[in-house]
Design brief:
Distance between the termini: 56 Å
Helix content: over 70%
CATH architecture: Up-down Bundle
Strand content: under 5%
CATH superfamily: Ferritin, core subunit, four-helix bundle
CATH class: Mainly Alpha
Number of strands: 0
Largest sheet: none
Shape: elongated
CATH topology: Ferritin
Radius of gyration: 17 Å
Structural class: mainly alpha
Length: 158
């Protein structure tokens, strides 16, 4: 038996959504790693604030990685599980050696801008295929991240 047999989605539409979620998963895996690096390497007068914030952000990204992978499984897909496959698929690029808070925040804001755009694409595709579960997941991500971007911009421009 397959999950799709019980949740009322057609396989063709679900496969399209799974493919778009797979790309988003790869982007989040790279973003998560970048955030860990920022957390570990940050220096300067904002160390205590940013070190803690970057930990919050990478924990949040890790949760999203798990949710996206599980959604792919629920739709009959198989999430990639190697970093080499993520690097081949992701548009988010690895960042290394960033110790400056402003540089890290700039990268984080740019990445959230990209991710929000990709989540909107997944939401639209899922909506076109009557996949309300994925629509709700993406809608929640977008709402949360738009608020976070506002807060990070407010902090960064102080």
């Amino acid at each position: 038996m397959k999950t799709l047999d019980f949740i009322g989605l057609n396989a063709s539409g679900a496969n399209k959504v799974v493919e778009s979620l797979g790309k988003l998963l790869a982007d989040y895996q790279v973003f998560y790693t970048n955030l860990r690096g920022f957390h570990w390497l940050i220096e300067g007068p904002d160390f205590f604030v940013l070190h803690a914030k970057f930990e919050d952000l990478y924990n949040n990204a890790a949760g999203k990685v798990d949710e996206i992978a599980e959604r792919m499984l629920a739709l009959g897909g198989k999430p990639a599980n190697t970093f080499s496959s993520y690097l081949k698929t992701a548009s988010v690029k690895e960042v290394t050696g960033v110790t400056n808070g402003r540089e890290a925040l700039k990268n984080i804001l740019e990445t959230y801008g990209y991710l929000i755009g990709e989540e909107r694409k997944v939401l639209s595709l899922a909506s076109d295929n009557n996949d309300e579960g994925t629509v709700a997941l993406m809608s929640d991500y977008i709402r949360e991240q738009e608020k976070l971007v506002w807060m990070l911009v407010a902090y960064e421009t102080r």
